[in-house]
Specification:
disordered C terminus, Anaerobic Ribonucleotide-triphosphate Reductase Large Chain, alpha/beta, ten-stranded mixed beta sheet
Length: about 700
């Protein structure tokens, strides 16, 4: 008798598929290293034979699973059966957990989203017991942020409802500290801070204390160490010799190790040194020593240096204490060292400091010296910024972009982020003053790769580059126009008269509006691709605390299913490689649509970044992925091109260059593992200190 349907746990009927049985058995075989797909297929046939003999037209999921266990035991595979039972139990616990937290039906969050929310975001009582569900979390955040509305109107309840709907629908999510801390005693909602590091022991350690407090509240910190006198320079107060900026970087790094952010994660830092600092070579090569593990490091590159490097001329290194040159070196040789180290370790990245300051909206207030940990948010000293990202998958309807819906999401998101500034509890008065003075916000996007795949557009193609400009141009323009509207209603940012906008427009609420962040854990919550990154893989194993979970890109799964491509032998190859590129039976069009990061030419990665940067007020976090066999010359070409394309910064990541990378392809992960694996929170930013 033919089996046509299977009864799900909720009582609904679903079309029967023997492929799902085969896949489930394969996972158990793989986990125990007892066989592959041929054996899985053989065993699934035995399961189906039992079902047919029992004359089940519509067996339940549980009954099928019971038979699978019996067949495994019958074939003398007790370890596999045990693995299968454990997997069943784990899935059961997850289902029950989701039901407890009220996420399955109302919010429809993914299993990974549920897990990450439980681990880090949901409130707990003093005993550590979770006391809210995701729905309540979004309500808590919406209620707290909407309180700002009472300063200008009686629309608190209206915007509480709108903000809640915006987040629970996963159309927009703010940065992690807002989700974690809104409505709590701590109340620190900002993601990014930049702190000054003066050339004095008192100032250096005062900043260290401030860094620890910010990390404890969930924020990330950026520093420029360029003001610190070089190693060996005289210290007049003691007539001793200075230890240089690298020594203090190491102290900051060590402190970060012992301070967990809100008790939930370690801190993240950006360390910047100007290219003309006398200790620049020691700084650039520091990651070779496997130090500064809690820092991303970036060289502040000047126009003068790049021109000298391209012309192969000598370049002066300047003592920041005296402002005088200490020696002259070939600029191209220093550039070669920078490229070599980036090739070897992924660090340093580059920030083009002159380009950043050309676009500084408040030059009269001060020059920008550093950025946040991932480089997308240039900030003045003591300045903070609140970030949020629009989920682009939510504006696709019937394979087209709903521009009116996007406009509404942008406007509401800008209002949300401006309200965050108002209700935020700032760690120090200096931070409060300059943050309220400039009212910077950073609205960005996530799910870009998903959107392209949904629209069947190849990442890096001319069509994708054109669409990138259209999408971000629309978001940037809409955000600007709405910030002008808010300025008329609420007043311009206080430093408006000292900004580049004075005498150009009559008012503006926020001196910057847009930023492209890597999105970190919020893209896991939203169940979409991170930032503007391409897919790293189509199928993989996600390593989580306590075990591993098999995952398949949901858009691939949906499109592949419609083309009858979810066959065991096809999926076996995809799991092993993470890619569909060299898998037999996959149409060429699908291979192009689902190209992964390492299959996309580096120059196309960079062109995508440059296109988004053109329409972004702040900066863009984007990894330029390189294959393991990429050359140092390629790195040099990318860095030079990024400068010429007027990017504000750039980072390369050569596969295999980091000893603790979160992404592994196939046999590279371990000798006895032959599948792609990635860390719990990978979301596109390969610089492992970032988890925002």
């Amino acid at each position: 008798m033919e089996i046509k349907f299977v009864k799900k746990r909720d009582g609904k009927l679903q079309e029967f598929s023997d492929k799902k049985i085969t896949t489930a058995i394969y996972k158990a075989l793989k986990a125990t290293k007892k066989g592959g797909f041929p054996l899985a297929k053989k065993l699934s046939i035995e399961v189906i034979d039992v079902l047919k003999k029992e004359k089940y037209i519509c067996p339940s999921v549980e009954h099928i699973q019971d038979i699978v266990e019996k067949i495994l035991m019958k074939n003398n595979l007790p370890e596999v059966a045990r693995s299968y039972i454990v997997y069943r139990e784990k899935r059961k616990q997850i289902r029950e957990s989701k039901e407890i937290f009220g996420v399955q039906d109302r919010l429809k969050l993914s299993l990974n989203a549920s897990g990450i929310l439980k681990k880090r975001y949901l409130l707990r009582d003093e005993s550590g017991k979770i006391v809210e569900n995701p729905e309540q979390m979004f309500n808590r955040v919406a209620k707290t942020i909407a309180e700002a509305e009472k300063n200008w109107s009686n629309s608190v309840s209206e915007y509480q409802e709108k903000f809640y709907e915006l987040m629970q629908s996963l159309q927009f999510l703010p940065n992690s500290p807002t989700l974690m801390n809104a409505g709590t005693k701590l109340g620190q909602l900002s993601a990014c801070f930049v702190l000054p590091v003066p050339d004095s022991i008192e100032g250096i350690f005062e900043t260290l204390k401030n860094m620890a407090l910010i990390h404890q509240s969930g924020g990330g910190t950026g520093f420029s160490f360029s003001s610190i006198r070089p190693e060996g320079d005289i210290v007049r107060s003691t007539m001793g010799r200075a230890s240089g900026p690298i020594s203090f970087l190491e102290i900051y790094d060590s402190a970060t190790d012992v301070v967990k952010q809100g008790g939930r994660r370690r801190g993240a830092n950006m360390g910047v040194l100007r290219v003309d600092h006398p200790d620049i070579i020691e700084f650039v090569t520091s990651k070779r020593k496997n130090i500064l593990t809690n820092f991303n490091i970036s060289v502040a590159i000047t126009d003068r240096f790049m021109k000298k490097a391209i012309a192969r001329e000598k370049f002066d290194l300047i003592n920041p204490r005296t402002g005088k040159p200490v020696k002259s070196i070939p600029a191209d040789e220093l550039f070669d060292i920078i490229c070599q180290c980036a090739w070897e370790t992924g660090d340093p990245g580059l920030i083009f400091i002159d380009e950043i300051n050309r676009k500084n909206p408040t030059p009269e207030i001060g020059s920008i010296e550093s950025t946040n940990p991932c480089g997308e948010q240039p900030l003045l000293n003591y300045e903070s910024c609140n970030l949020g990202s629009i989920n682009l998958t939510k504006i696709i309807e019937k394979n087209t972009i709903n521009w009116e819906k996007l406009k509404e999401i942008v406007q509401l998101s800008v209002r949300f982020l401006d309200d965050v500034i108002e209700v935020n509890k700032y760690p120090f008065e200096q931070i409060r003053n300059i943050t309220l003075g400039n009212r910077k916000i950073g609205l960005g996007v996530m799910g870009w790769a998903d959107m392209l795949a949904e629209l069947e557009i190849e990442y890096g193609s001319k069509e994708s580059i054109k669409l990138a400009g259209e999408i971000m141009g629309f978001i940037n323009k809409t955000a600007f126009e709405y910030s002008v509207k808010l300025g008329r209603e609420r007043g311009s940012f206080p430093n408006f008269s000292k900004s580049i906008y004075t005498n150009k427009i009559d008012c503006l609420r926020n001196c910057t509006r847009t930023t492209i962040a890597p999105t970190g854990t919020i893209s896991i919550i939203a169940n979409c691709s991170s930032g503007i990154e391409p897919f790293f893989a189509i199928a993989y194993i996600r390593r989580i605390s306590g075990g591993s979970m098999f995952e398949v890109n949901p858009i691939w799964e949906k499109k592949a299913d419609s083309l009858n491509l979810l066959k065991p032998e096809i999926m076996a190859e995809i799991i092993k490689k993470g890619s569909v590129n060299n898998v037999k039976g996959i149409p060429e069009k699908m291979k192009k649509i689902f190209r992964t990061a390492l299959e996309i030419k580096p120059e196309l990665h960079l062109l995508m970044q440059a296109t988004f940067q053109k329409y972004t007020d702040n900066a863009v976090s984007k990894t330029i992925n390189l294959a393991e066999d990429a050359s140092i010359k390629q790195v040099k070409n990318i860095f030079t091109s990024a400068y010429k394309l007027r990017c504000k910064g750039t980072t390369v990541f050569r596969y295999g260059s980091k000893p603790s990378q979160v992404l592994y392809l196939g046999e590279d992960f371990a000798e006895d593992i032959d599948y792609l694996s990635l860390g719990e929170e990978f979301a596109g930013c390969s610089r492992t200190t970032c988890n925002f």
